[in-house]
Every structure is written in structure tokens, then in C-alpha cells.
Design brief:
Layout: E1 3-4, H1 9-21, H2 27-51, E2 58-59, H3 61-84, H4 94-105, H5 137-142, H6 146-169, H7 174-185, H8 188-195, H9 202-216, H10 219-229, H11 236-250, H12 255-262
Antiparallel strand pairs: 1-2
Length: about 260
Amino acid sequence: MSLSVLSLLPFFIFYLPIQYWIGSKGISGLILTGILLCAPILFRIQKRWKKESFPPLIVSPGILISYWSLFVFTEGIFYTTTALDSFFLGDFDYTAQTRMIVPTIDGKFFQTQYYGPNENANFLSHHMTPGILLLTPFPILFGSELGFGIGIFFFASITIPLLYYYLRTCSVSKELSLCASLLWSGSSSFYRLNHSLHFEVLVPLLCLCALIGIQRQKFWITSISLCFFLGIKEDLSIYLAAIAIVLIPTDKKRHKEWIFVFI
């Protein structure tokens, strides 16, 4: 099933970029409201075109998702490149994480002097985050400075099609799945998560992978995703156990999967 691209043009061309780069405070909030009001107007124009036998403009949801995922990834590379040319990265943990990953490439896992005076000070003493190793290939491929940021925005961008795919596996319609994915990708929380240039960007990605494994009842997907997911933050196991407690008695079809998650 295809969707009319005409009524989505204001959302894609104006709303998402403004929300993504500027936010919704002040005058930009009024601009965003006006842009959203354009969608029903264009929808009425489209219906009139149908009555006059004009061919409708249609596009697959997959193309829209791919377009915005590429936009997020490309913008992230430019953002990281610009930040590297300034002192802006000093406000984040970017330097600390990069200085930990570089020795890891040489086989000195998690060693960094950024969080301790000892020669073999360990990053895990500050954050129990072995899952950060998922970002290691990117400094190898693209260099230690820019590679970490590329990895951050790569994993951020693929959460968008993953969210769409997960909603579709839950029997959510294409229209609602597309809207939910685009609203997530254009939200200020998504923007802040990515542009903090922090390993926590892996949390939504691995959470979605685990949920997809549970939904499809694929034990290997669930187990691998959980291993990396629980290795991102120390407190994630508490939240996951709380969700599992609720869903063990309610989700009868996936009763065993949620028991496994809780254990």
C-alpha cells in the first residue's frame, strides 16, 4: 500500500528539519504549527485531484523512511566534523570515549587515563559499559577522531527503519507505523540523544532488536540483543525487569520469552 506524498511534503521538507535543527521554542513553534496546518489543506487538494481524474502522487513508506534515515546520518557527519573544528566537544564525553576506544583497537580493552591517574586506568570503573565495543569498528574505518561520531549517527539512523519494522511486526498499519517512526525521528529527544555524541545512542537500537526478537519469538535475536543491551548502562536491567513483570501475565503468546527476559 502506498501513501500520498503530497500531504507529507510539509512534514518532510519543512517540519522535520526545523524540529531537528531548531526545536519548537519561540517563533519556531509557531512556524511548525503553520506547517502542520498545511497538511490537511494539501490533503483536500489531493482529494479534489482524484475527482478530476488527475494521477495521485504516491510513494512507498520504505522510501520515506530511507530518505529520513539518510538525512539524519548525513547531518550527523556534518555536525561531528564541525564540532571537531571547535572546542564544542569538550562539553561531552566524546574525548573520553574516543581515548578509550583507540587503545581497544590495539588490544588494550577499556584502558584510558581520562578517568584515573594509573597507567592502566579502566573505563569500566566509570561506566560499566562493555557494549560500547559496538562502536569500535568505526574509528578503525574512518579514523579515531571522526569515526566515533560516524558510528553514533549510523546507529541512530538505523533505529528509524527498525522502529517501523517492529511496529509492522506488531500488526500496526503502515500509515501509523510511518507516522510513529517519523515523529520519533523528528523529536527533540531523538535529536538530543544523537547530538550528545554518547554511547547511550545504542539503547533504543538494542532495545528494538530485543523487542523484535521477542515479538518474532527468535531466541537467538533476543539473547544477543539483551547481552549488548544490558552492557550499555548499569540500570537498564531494572527497567527491563519491570517491563517483563507486567508482560509475563498479560502477553500469553510470548510468556516464555518474557520470563527469559526477567531472569
